[in-house]
Amino acid sequence: MNTGEQPKTRRRVVVTGVGVVSPLGIGAGPFLENLRAGKSGIGPIGLMSYSAAPENVGGEVREFTEEAAKKTWLKELRKSIKVMCREIQMGVASAALALEHAGLDTAAMDRERFGVDFGANLMFSPPEVLKDACWTCVDGEGPRRTFHYERWGRGGANEG
Predict the structure, then answer these.
(1) Is 156:138 a contact under the CB 8 Å cutoff?
(2) pLDDT (tens digit per residue) in 137-156
(3) Pick from 90, 56, 77, 81: which is nearest to 158 by CA?
């Protein structure tokens, strides 16, 4: 309910950098260059074997492959990549690009006043991405298999 009163303390947010991960380009420079050139990031969908999009057309960030992420945008986080779905990888890369774009000295920052918030309500991970992690949480054979949920965080997600 809005009472018309101003909050006693107002939080200030400063956006200092832009991290773009889009079908038009990755990074502020390539994105703006392609935008100014009138290029389109829309085309036939090729990263998924199926799509509900009309005529199978959409915008894909084709340049963002796992190999390119490891070598370019997430090289300092290579070991963490295996537990991230592609969408989270792109979000982390976007945050890293924004930091780079801002030119911030992260070592000198007050980390209590800095953060990135990811919502992971819907995580699209094809079954092959989670398969090995799931099997590390299973004991037994055939119909007597048991999935141990308590293993997921300690072993499953870390081992997959």
Answers:
(1) no
(2) 888 887 788 888 888 766 55
(3) 81
